[in-house]
Amino acid sequence: QVQLVESGGGLVQYGGSLRLSCAASGFSFSTFSMAWDRQAPGKGRELVAHISSDGDSAHYADSVKGRFTISRDNTKSTVYLQMNSLKPDDTAEYYCNAYRIAPRWYDYWGQGTQVTVSS
Questions:
Q1: Residues of the chain with pLDDT > 90: what percent?
Q2: Residue 15 in 3-state DSSP?
Q3: What CA–CA distance (Å, rounded) separates 58 from 22?
Q4: Could you read off the pLDDT of 12-46 as tens digits, one per residue?
Q5: Are 51 and 57 contacting, i.e. CB atoms less than 8 angstroms apart?
Q6: Planar angle of CA 38, 56, 50, nearest 5 degrees
Q7: What pLDDT score does 104 carry?
Q8: Which of 95, 98, 107, 108 has its Cβ near the most Cβ atoms within 10 Å?
Q9: Which of 82, 97, 93, 90 is nearest to 119 (CA)?
Q10: Which residues pair with 106 in a beta bridge?
Q11: Could you give the maximum distance between any two Cα atoms of the chain, in Å?
Q12: Is 50's pLDDT higher than 90?
């Protein structure tokens, strides 16, 4: 079955760094675009970054541009989110998302990993 397992979250101080990983299985990883979303308490889910299936194209939310980097290793079926210069506003549950539009819509989600940034 399809699985997306996030890891790497935790508690970090203001200005610190974390690297999130999402290990995928049960589907053809290299044919899916991947994304990281986050949801802070009391707020809606926010798209943080997404990357194309071949890793050649990535886009970021303005709030993380220049601080976060999304990458993927198709040989390991894993997507990463390197987070630097973390701020308390980055505190949220982070979710891994796999999606594909054609030949039909596919949309898979992980369980999430908590990131907490202390001031």
A1: 94
A2: coil
A3: 16
A4: 999 999 999 999 999 999 999 999 999 999 999 99
A5: yes
A6: 10
A7: 87
A8: 98
A9: 90
A10: 100
A11: 46
A12: yes
Backbone phi, then psi, for 13, in 5-degree steps?
-80, 160
Quick one: tokens of 5? 């397992």
Omega into 103 within 30° of 0, i.e. cis? yes
β-partners of residue 83 are 18, 68
Q: Which residues contact 46 (CB under 8 A, 6 or more apart)?
A: 37, 38, 39, 40, 61, 63, 92
Alpha carbons 93 and 41: distance in angstroms, whole number = 8
Tokens 């940034």 sit at which residue?
A: 117
Q: Locate 20 and state its tokens.
A: 């999130």
Residue 69's Cβ-side half-sphere holds a number of Cα atoms within 13 Å equal to 9
Which residues pair with residue 45 across a beta bridge? Answer: 39
